[in-house]
């Protein structure tokens, strides 16, 4: 059985076929609990980490042979989690997951520790930063493309400059512009 992440609306699978796919279709036809199959992105360990992040975020459970947790031995209350989930062709967004805020913060701290570890490769740091941003209630993905490599580089620079200015402002502190700081100081 491929690793799967189950909750009332979506199910994240490594691959879905055979009986699992048939069960999803039959549930839909019989007006049973709504289930959506979502392919888990990435490969290998990164896929496991994403499933772990979803588990922490939603308070769900991973059913996998490695952990010896079988779907057949589960109860319906394990599959009934609330929150709002939006699924598109490219993205799955979880709002108001049932995960414990303390557990999410502890998980974010683990990721911060891995980011600070000098032995972590640059590739792993990039993936850890993406996971951290998604778990810490703030993520933005900017996709930019153009006809030539030079144009792509220029467009990327146009996005990088304001992002770097924002990071510097957060680190060093900022004042509101257009005379607002003077106005506030005079009050």
UniProtKB/TrEMBL annotation:
Keywords: Chaperone. Gene3D superfamilies: GroEL (3.50.7.10), GroEL-like equatorial domain (1.10.560.10), TCP-1-like chaperonin intermediate domain (3.30.260.10). Signal peptide: none annotated. PANTHER family: 60 KDA HEAT SHOCK PROTEIN, MITOCHONDRIAL. GO terms for biological process: protein refolding. It comes from Pisolithus tinctorius Marx 270. Belongs to the chaperonin (HSP60) family. This is Uncharacterized protein. The keyword Chaperone applies. GO terms for molecular function: ATP-dependent protein folding chaperone.
